[in-house]
Structures are given as C-alpha cells and as structure tokens.
Amino acid sequence: MDENTRGGKEGSNNGGNIKKRNKNIIKNLQDRELSCKHHRAFVTATTPHRFQNMRFSHELDTHHSKHKSPPHILPFLMGRTKIVQITAAKNIVFVLAESGLCAAFSSETDERICFMNLHPNDLIRRLFYNKNNDSLITASSRSRMPEEYRSTRIEDIRRAKPDAGFDLFQSESFVVKFDDVNAKVLTYSAQDSIFKVFDLKNYTFLYLFSFSNVDWINISSGIMLFIFKRTSDHIPVKIISIEDGKNREVDMIVCNEKLLVMQDNVNLQILDLPSFKIMASVSRTEFMNPSRFIFLCKKQLFLTLKNQTNFVWNFHGELVTSLEDHLLRHPLWHPDFKNNNYITSDQNLIISYCRDDSEDQSMVTNVIGSINVSNILSGKCVAKINATKALECIDSSKKMSVTEALEGITTLYYDEDRNAIYTGNRHGHVHVWSNSNQLMIKKE
Question: Which Pfam families does the record associate with it (predicted)?
Fold first, then answer.
C-alpha cells in the first residue's frame, strides 16, 4: 500500500474521529441542558450571568387608577401601606399590603387581574400557594376574630373570579402550618387543645390528637416533633408520624437525622436522633443565640441570623462560612429575615436586601440599600443590584424612580421560573428587576 493510499485512509479516519468528537460534544451539551441534574460546575459558572445584568424594569401598583376598582376595595385605597408579602405562581404575582389589601397581577402583561379581598372587612394577612392542587390559600382576619381561610384555584384567579373559591377549616382556631413537604395542614383548636391534620391536596380531615403545654413544633419529612415546656429537670419531646399520628421511635429525621438544642447559658448541642448521641457541642461564646434558624437539609447545613448577619454551619458544629456581603459595611438592612431574604429551591443561593456601601453615589441621593445575591456554600457575593448599577441604561427622567425602588424595601421575592426579582417597599409599591435586553418602565 503506497503512502498516498495510507495517507488517504488516515485522513479519512481523522475526519471520522472529528465527526465523532463533534457528535459527542453535541450530545453532551444536549444531555446537560435537558438533564434535571445540571453539572454543578456549569451551574456555578452560569449563576452570575442570571443576575449580573439585572436592572430596574417596571413597577406594579395596587393603587393604579387605570382600571376601575370595585366599590368594596375603595376603603383599602384610602392610604398606602408597606408591602409585607409577595409570591408568584403560574405567571401570576400576588402582592399583599399591611392594610390587608391583596392584588393579583399578570407577570406576562403586568396588568392587574383582580383583588383577592371579597368585602371591606376581608383583611388578608397571609398567602400560601398550594402547589398540590394549584390554588392560593388566603388567611384573613377581622378585629378580635380568629383567622379565616379560603382556597381559590389559580385558574379562577386568572379569569378574575376570586369569589369562586371556598372557605377552609371553619371550626379551627388557627392553622399552625401549611406543610408542602408532606402535603399536610396542621391546625389547632385553642378551646380544647386539639391538633388536627388535613390533607393539603383536597383538605380532607385525617386524624386528631391532643397535647398541652406545647412550646415549639417542627415538621420535617414524615414526622412532627413536639417540644413541650420545660419541667423541673428536663424538656419533654415527642415525635409522631405525620401520616397516621402514631408515636414513632427515634429512627426518623428532623433534618438529616439531626436536632439542635439551645438553652440559655448552655452550649449548643447537636443531637443524632437515631442514636440519641450528642454529635457536637459548640461553645456559647462561639455560637451566640441567633435570632433565627434556617435548615438547609439538601446541603446538610443550617443557616443562622445574628445581628443582621448570616452564618452557615454544618451538623458537626463547625462554621462553614459567613456571607461576606452581609458583614461590617453590608449587613442585612432589616432584622426581619423572612421578608427580606429568599433562598432558592436548590439551596445554593440567598438573595437579600442589604445596606449599600457603593463609593460612587454622586449620581443619586438617599440610597440606603442594595439587593445582594450570595453563594451559600462559598459565602461569596456573585451579583449585586445597587443604585449605580440600576441607573445604567436608564434615562435621566427615570432616575428618581430607580433610586426610590431601592429605598425602604420591606419584602423580597425571586421568581425562579421567570428569573425576576420582586421587591416591595414601605410606600406600597412593587418593583420588578430583570435582566431582559429590552428594559422598560411602565408608564402610568
């Protein structure tokens, strides 16, 4: 066989190898994009890109006069109050104000769909999206009256029919917990100290039990943990199955089979439930009593809030990291962790409203906060929305609107499906932040 022939065959083989490699690359890319378990390195690398170009987009206003409001809503519109909760589901954004006014907006058109209040005394205090049956549960209250609960299908809300819902748990004093993990609802009747468990899918009653002197309740996968008021020498604890209400041996978990026990003037103790052995004891000088705990069970970690700063720990009692952008010049703006932080469903990121330390604030005035996106595992800030960045690509006539959007934020929500951040402020406005190429500010 001559050299030219050999060379031709080798060239042919090389061409085949190149095609094969290209085919493998394409297949790997397809597998990565279609897989529900994206490669961690790829996710880490792309995380900043989701947020780095986020800018002020537009405003949602519950008091917008473009659409006529029903007569029974007019008393709610007499004065603006701060936004206390924002949640989203199926391309609908729900905005709740401290006054009890609740409005639903389309996240596709940004138009107000309807108000969730059915009458002038319907003061809505809490919202819960029930993904088990695609409905919104509202908790309303009247003066000196127990909360009233109502379930309304998302489809009915989309058709501007909030009155198509129905009442829930009318015989109960209040709902202790809407539990998404186990698809259960735990209620309590104060009159007879009876707890009841309902199915969150169809609200049918399952079973009841009676406990008194309950000091704290924790619900995890498969169980309910009841901690009772301290007696003279110990703290009673009871673990029961959330499926049937029966007592369970300590072979179930609270969070990855771990229980944290804190007492005044005593070291933090981390208990392994299956063996009831103490895994770690952390000196109270190192672990000062935090104001809030957040279990990150997917990561086998827990997050604490102390003095408006977040810390991440493992279940060996070791400090994993502190969120660098929450320290010193960057603390959380408000001590209310629940309203001003959002932890993503994969528990990789935390989005927070923090104090802003931008050095270049010559273009703006009264800037008091920034929206920070931090990696929970590394503690690094991966993206930040502050006044300087938010003003980019905004014409001068809109600058005041942008700076006002970062002042006095009272609640924050991240729509993971649409990659948009919603913030509500003390003036009753909701602002939308997105990284779309075509920025726009809605005109009144």
Answer: DUF7899 (PF25463)
Count Cα atoms within 13 angstroms, Cβ side, for 354: 29
Q: 189 forms bridges with which residues in the sheet?
A: 194
Q: Which helix (DSSP H) or strand (DSSP E) does residue 142 occupy? A: none
User: How far is the C-alpha of 304 from the C-alpha of 287, rounded, in Å?
Assistant: 10
What's 180's domain CATH number? 2.130.10.10
One-character DSSP codes across 397-418: GGHHHHHHHTSSEEEEEEETTT
* Domain contains 205: yes
**Per-residue model confidence (pLDDT) at position 102:** 96
Instruction: Please state, in angstroms and rounded to a whole number, the distance separating the CA atoms of residues 344 and 47.
Output: 12
Structure-token pair, residue 90: 């199926």
Side by side, the strands of the sheet bearing 214-220 are 214-220, 223-228, 237-241
d(CA 129, CA 135): 6
Q: Which of 384, 270, 279 is nearest to 323 (CA)?
A: 384
Domain ranges, residue 391: 47-435
- Count of C-beta atoms within a 10 Å radius of residue 62: 26
Paired strand residues for 205: 198
Q: Which residue(s) pair with 260 in the sheet?
A: 270
Q: Looking at the predicted structure, is the pLDDT value of residue 328 above 50? A: no
Asked if residues 411 and 94 have their Cβ atoms less than 8 Å apart, the reply is: no
Residue 403 lies in a domain: yes
**Neighbouring C-alpha atoms within 13 Å toward the C-beta of 14:** 6
Cα dihedral 190→196→200→201 (10° resolution): -140
Buried-state track 252-263, b at ≥16 Cβ within 10 A, e below 16: bbbbbbbbbeee
Binned at pLDDT 50, 70 and 90, residue 382 comes out as confident
Please write the tens of the pLDDT for every residue from 29-40. Answer: 444 444 444 444
Domain presence at residue 18: no
Count of domains forming the chain: 1
